[in-house]
Amino acid sequence: MSRIIGIDLGTTNSLVAFLGDDGPLVVPDPETGARLLPSAVAFLPSGEVVVGERARELVVERPLDTILSVKRFMGLGIEHVTPEDRRRYRFVEGREGAVRFAVDGREVTPPEVSSYILRELKRWAETALGEAVTQAVITVPAYFNDSQRQATKDAGRLAGLEVLRLVNEPTAAALAYGLDQGAEGVIAVYDLGGGTFDVSILKLRGGVFEVLATNGDTRLGGDDMDERLAALLLAGLPADLGSRPDVRARARAAAERAKRVLSDAPRAEVVLALPGHGPVRGTVTRAEFEALIEEIVRRTAAPCRRALKDAGLEPGDVREVVAVGGATRVPLVRREMQAIFHRPPLVDLNPDEVVALGAGIQAGILGGSRRDMLLLDVVPLSLGIETMGGVFTRLVDRNTTIPVSVKETFTTAVDNQTAVDVHVLQGERELATDNRSLARFKIPIDPLPA
User: Fold this and answer.
1) Is 397 a catalytic residue?
2) pLDDT tens, 35-61?
3) 383-444: CATH class
């Protein structure tokens, strides 16, 4: 039986891991030794598709044909594309349905773009293991809906991988933390990545990892911080120059570099190289940066409080808070975590690698390498059906442990109905039209009085 791998398909970077004899291991690039694969894909005029660091470098040269942060578009319809998104990429407009990028004269979907990243990680794993790899566990944000999860599975299939299981990213991090620390009790996992935010409350005891509640925002992350700082840099340029896609791409890259410096230093020099012009230089202090991103960081508090409420817990009931995702290196984020949970975050594990390590552990569990760990996860959003008057009737509430089965009796609406239309939805709104449709099907019945 071939080895099962675990993949963290991230917004900014992606990783692959497996469970070895001495624990989970992150697989490096066989050529460079790098452990992080930038989640960047560039489409060249020659037909070549470039993935990783080289693609990220091409973004300033080919900004509209180089896709970064594709994870933010997984499973979304064209109606979810924002004006800012349209300034970064070309989209196929004029028809409803899933997002499609227009790159170098062709159309590609987010799952297709993601599949190139997965193929590269698959190659890394096959080189390291010396065998073909066909099965994988892939992590997803806990608050991904069904469409976003299905899009991730589609990407795996396109990459030649059978996706055995999708694991919520905070849950994967908890697996790695629990194995590393041997911890028991209630922990909170605060996962702020490049494009998504998740929080999960888990109970660890005797090798059982039970998710009590989860919440999040699939359009909130470090990318938003970069955009705020980039906008500040662009504001000082002439409008015709600042609106150019290549200049905007350079500004975002400069902003990301400054963000990393400001995580450790009180100030950062920002250099924005402009084609055909001299470089624009400036200095940004940590205080100025924190003022720019304060609203973004504060938005993480509400999902945390909802998760605690759904779990029936207070901040004082949480034993440890685990920091996951590169954006948790920002000092303001760590202070926010401490303010929410009344304790400093745990930063012992590498926030960039902890999710991949957990995915590797789950892959090992499915492969039979470990039998002393059990993972009990939850549904992130309520499931139900549409009933008379367009009302959404919940059958499975959010944060219910899975697997689960429910039964409820419904009556027909009028006499002598010959069929019942069942509309399955996912969400938290009261009206069916405000929730996400998952499926529709018809059940034939014998005509009887209502």
Assistant:
1) no
2) 999 999 999 999 999 999 999 999 989
3) mainly beta
